Amino acid sequence: MSKLPHIGTSIFSTMSHMANEHNAINLSQGFPNFPVDNRLKNLVAHWSSQEIHQYLPMAGFPPLLEKIAILTQKSYGRSVHPNTEVLITAGATEGIFATLQALVHPKEEVIILDPSYDCYETPILLGNAIPKRIPLKDDFTPNWELIGNTLNANTKMIIINNPHNPSGRIWSEHDFTQLEQLVTLYPNLLILADEVYEYITFEQKHRSINQREQLKNRSIIVSSFGKSFHITGWKIGYLIAPEPLMNEIKKVHQFLVFSVNSMAQYALNDYMELVNVNELGAFYQHKRDFFRSLLHETPLELLPSEGSYFQVASYASLSKENDLDFTKRLVTEYGVAAVPLSPFYADNKQTQCIRFCFAKEDHTLQEAAKRLRNL
């Protein structure tokens, strides 16, 4: 008997499969299609010939942990201890899974803000805890009245995602102050902050939990080398958390993967001395602006994209179809794959919105827009 009877193939796999089957341009799955930095590839080539292929320490390669601590200090002004408050994970997803398994007990509640990434709910269910799915407002900002009404003494954790996937919205100062007011009412509440797109923001700079004195000591912050350095297939990320929480997470992490790919850690340790993460926002803002300018020539209505490499668009003026049918027709009739938003909601809410990934070569975006102009 299945432990996850309602879980099927992810919408990302479904749409990518359809894109391949129909030779469509794949703007559905969130991965870049442009080359990785040659400096990073050269580092991998160098380290592949060295004798560094055995297990590294469970928490991560110590020099890389130091580099993360330095980056956190430079980016957010937060001092973290590399040996006790940082953990290298096998991608952000493993970090999220280990955190939820370690810190949430059976029957405790975890708040998820929908539309939400599909890896949040499963570890909660596997731990016999209770996911409480709360919709964001129609503009994809937090509904603090609804969140406040849902919190109770049995709520163990709230998961936040900023910058947000799938909407591309980012949190305002008001959102953080609202969260700070709520945690004062619930002193045992923990925060799992998914910040994997932290270095991909545009007009407004990213606000991180790392910068919030009232929140950081009860928070687990998730970051991703895969997202920041265009290496999603490496599946490597990291967590930052206060030592008492991190000790519990490490107990689970060591029996999930023990340690993370050694060659990747050596290469990233060197690469972090060469790369400036603060240039990422400008790079992706060019992509966003270019893609939006192309889509203005289509009948789609573009919603705000403040961070991440996603653009949400409404097709409400074109069709009354549900979003899954519309995206399937987009593949079969127009040769472009996008992702419907309804699978990101617990109740499959219909917003008549779809998500495009613009982390693609310019010519890919141009060809996709050319096809979308035929809508």
TrEMBL record:
InterPro entries from the UniProt entry? Aminotransferase_I/II_large, Kynurenine-oxoglutarate_AT, PyrdxlP-dep_Trfase, PyrdxlP-dep_Trfase_major, PyrdxlP-dep_Trfase_small
* Record keywords: Aminotransferase, Pyridoxal phosphate, Transferase
Q: Which residues form the signal peptide?
A: none
The source's superkingdom equals: Bacteria
UniProt cofactor(s) = pyridoxal 5'-phosphate
Q: Name one GO cellular component term.
A: cytoplasm
- Taking every annotated instance into account, which residue ranges of this chain make up the domain Aminotransferase class I/classII large? 24-372
Is Signal a UniProt keyword of this protein? no
By its UniProt entry, which SUPFAM superfamilies does this protein fall under?
Answer: PLP-dependent transferases (SSF53383)
Quote one Gene Ontology molecular function term. Answer: pyridoxal phosphate binding
- Gene3D superfamilies associated with the record: Aspartate Aminotransferase, domain 1 (3.90.1150.10), Type I PLP-dependent aspartate aminotransferase-like (Major domain) (3.40.640.10)
Indicate yes or no for the key word Transferase: yes
The record's listing under Pfam families reads:
Aminotran_1_2
For this protein, the record's NCBIfam families field holds: PRK09082.1
The UniProt similarity line reads:
Belongs to the class-I pyridoxal-phosphate-dependent aminotransferase family.
UniProt-listed PANTHER family: FI04487P (PTHR43807)
* Name of the protein in its database record: Methionine aminotransferase
